Structure formats: C-alpha cells, structure tokens
Amino acid sequence: MRKAMIERKTNETEIKLKINLDGSGQYNINTGIPFFDHMLTQVALHGLLDFEIQARGDLEVDQHHTIEDVALALGQGFSEALGDKAGIERVGEALVPMDESLCQVVVDLSGRPYLVYDAEWNDPRVGGFSVTLVEHFFYSFSMTSKSTLHARVLYGRDNHHKVEGLFKAFGRALKKAVALDPRRQDQIPSSKGVL
Question: Does 81 reside within a domain?
Fold first, then answer.
C-alpha cells in the first residue's frame, strides 16, 4: 500500500495528515474551515484516496495559512507515497459537470512543479471561503508534489458549483495519474528513466 504520514508545524499552523493512495475514499477531515473540509472530502471520494487530515491554524487572522499548509502537506504526502513512481500511469485528466458548470483538471506527476489556472468568480467568497485561495491551494500542492497541474473552470455561474467541480475533477484526475499499469510493472513512465 502506498501510504504517507506528514506532520507540519509552524508558528501559524499545525497539520497532521495521513494518506493512502490505494484507498476506497475514506476520510476524516477537520481543518476548522467547513467549506474546505467539504472540498477535501470531494478529492478523497472521487479520487478513491483515504485521507486523515487534522489542521489547526490561525483562523483568527484568515484562512490563507491553513489552506496553504494543508495543500503543502498534501502534496508532500503524495510525493512520499508515490516513491520513485514506478508503474504509475503518471498523467490523469477529468472533465466534471456540476449543474451549469463544467470544470477540467489535468495532472502530470512529472517531477516538475507547474500550475496553469483559469477560473473566473462571480463573488469573492462561497461558504465563508475566499475563492482566491482555490488557486493558491492548487499552486501549493503542485509545488510539493512536484506535479504539473492544469485547472480550469470552462464555464458556470454558481461559485459553489465551480469550486466543487474543480475539486471533484482534481480527485478524479489524481485517481487516474496514481493508478498502477500492470503492463508497466516496475518501469518509470519516462524516457529519462526518472521522474
């Protein structure tokens, strides 16, 4: 089983995270930000990933540090659980509709961190959650997971639907990217021989 346990403690946050890439979508998530918990739940459920995430942060300041540090820890957990990435599909993509919205996420577990992000919002917040932090979540994850990530809201009106569609697509893209291809066995999916 490809698992990792990460603990991240700063003057602003304290994160404890367990991840199982070969899970069934089980989760126990408490970040102190209910809407963010709901989004991380979508990643677990749609990605068939098992998450235990407990976070305490300086929410009296704002949500930024907590969301950033959870994303950094999550990306680090993915990187550790994947090891040398032998046998994985490496690339995953998902196109997810949510009512009037359509979202797309494509991920390449390439060892090269990069984010392309394209989303427009109707309001600055949804469920007490600042939508500007969606981009920062994906950026922080891509940095520590060392993955190339493209996240786009193709269209939509309702901010809740657009954010949730992105997180569902993220989970589904990750599920495909971390999947093991029995034909590849112990081979690294790169002509370089390393990721």
Answer: yes
Those residues of the chain that have pLDDT short of 50 are: none
**How many independent structural domains does the chain possess?**
1
CA-wise closest residue to 2 among 166, 188, 180: 180
Q: Of 20, 27, 24, 23, nearest to 2 (Cα)?
A: 20
On whether residue 194 sits in a domain, the answer given is no
pLDDT for 149 equals 98
Neighbour-count burial of 123, counting CB atoms closer than 10 A to its CB (0-12 exposed, 13-18 middle, 19+ buried): exposed
In a domain, 109, yes or no: yes
- DSSP run (H or E) holding 56: strand 50-57
Instruction: Tell me if 156 sits within 8 A of 84, measured CB to CB.
Output: no
Structural domain for 104, as ranges: 3-178
The answer as to whether 47 is a domain residue is: yes
- CA neighbours closer than 13 Å in the CB half-sphere of residue 55: 32
What pLDDT shows up at residue 79? Answer: 97
Dihedral angle computed from the Cα positions of residues 65, 54, 147 and 156, in that order, rounded to the nearest 10 degrees: -70
Burial class (CB in 10 A: 0-12, 13-18, 19+), 154: middle
Q: What is the pLDDT of residue 185?
A: 86
Mean of pLDDT over the chain: 97
Domain CATH code at residue 50:
3.30.230.40
